[in-house]
Design goal:
Helix content: 40-55%
Structural class: alpha+beta
Shape: elongated
Number of helices: 13
Largest sheet: 8 strands, mixed
Radius of gyration: 29 Å
Distance between the termini: 11 Å
Order of helices and strands: EHHHHEHEEHHHHHHEEHEHE
Length: 315
């Protein structure tokens, strides 16, 4: 039975770029179509019909909403070809031990697993506003108690009430209205300088990265997504499926980095006398940058990085 794909992500540019090489003749057909609408070049080197369907999709209603809806069918042709030609390796919890050895020798991978959505923009904003958010949560969670003490104090303020009781209530209310202390007591307050430095490091090291991680023990597959090709706003996506979705997703793409060990960077020697040319100085700075960037983007020992074409779940 044919499954229906609900797309989370689809890089149309990358898909069509690869498809133009798979379905030979598509470019020739497009040129012919633009030159004349009364003649068609029936010559096609690729699988019969496939190139023409792909070309029809590409030239159909260019720049309109209708074209967007046809990308999904175009992807179906693309994935069907990969499977029929044996150019895609399927990886899941059922076959990971057997198929992981072939990762370095395949063109495409299909990873089936639960996913984790890692949005660095949201993480940065959360860190920047952590203390403010913590105080807001502390006030909300203690509001009933604060309001109760306020009412008791209003009653105790009447002349007939005990002064000691009034003083105790005032001290209690003062403590409850110290929102920063309440937040600290609940673990919702961190050193402001620490938070500022963390936000800076995340902004520098990860920028606006939207990462999807799919663990299949003992490995983890990761992909950095271009937000332009997400089918929905990332905030809506997280609200729908949660940041740790329960559903199984399918990630299709090519291997960018595999299980091979990462490069050990060693910057040049000490001092400036070692550099005879400006180019050598520049290359030294590039090496230092590589060392620094590996702190943020360096691959884990059990991590496999996938350059994504699509992410979807099956219905």
């Amino acid at each position: 039975m044919q499954t229906i794909k609900s797309f989370i992500y689809l890089d149309e540019y990358k898909m069509y770029s690869i498809s133009s090489q798979i379905f030979e003749g598509i470019t020739e057909y497009l040129i012919d179509y633009r030159e004349t609408t009364t003649q068609e070049n029936e010559a096609q080197k690729g699988p019969i019909g496939s190139g023409r369907i792909m070309a029809d999709i590409l030239k159909s209603e260019s720049g309109t909403r209708e074209k967007k809806y046809l990308h999904d069918y175009s992807y179906k042709l693309f994935e069907d070809y990969l499977k029929e030609s044996g150019k895609i390796l399927s990886l899941s919890v059922e076959n990971i031990d057997e198929n992981i050895k072939r990762v370095d020798n395949v063109g495409f991978v299909e990873v089936r697993a639960k996913a984790v959505f890692n949005d660095m923009n949201t993480l940065k904003v959360t860190i920047e506003q952590f203390n403010e958010l913590g105080q807001a949560l502390a006030y909300i969670t203690n509001f009933e108690k604060i309001d109760e003490v306020r009412q008791q104090l209003a009653t105790a303020a009447q002349p007939i009430k005990d002064r000691n009781q009034k003083s105790r209530l005032r001290q209690q209310l003062k403590g409850l209205e110290n929102i920063e202390k309440l937040a600290k007591d609940q673990g919702l307050h961190q050193d402001p300088v620490l938070l500022k430095k963390l936000a800076f490091v995340i902004d520098y090291g990860f920028q606006d990265q939207f990462e999807v991680r799919m663990p299949i023990e003992p490995y983890v597959f990761s992909s950095n997504f271009n937000r332009e090709y997400l089918r929905e706003d990332e905030h809506l996506l997280v609200r729908k499926y949660s940041r740790l979705p329960e559903k199984e997703f399918v990630l299709v793409g090519t291997i960018a980095q595999s299980s091979s060990k990462p490069t050990d960077y060693e910057a040049g020697g000490e001092g400036d006398d070692q550099f005879e040319h400006l180019k050598e100085r520049i290359m030294y700075l590039v090496e230092l940058l590589g060392i620094m960037e590996s702190t943020f983007s360096g691959k884990l020992a059990n991590e496999i990085v996938v350059d994504p074409v699509a992410l979807y779940h099956e219905i």
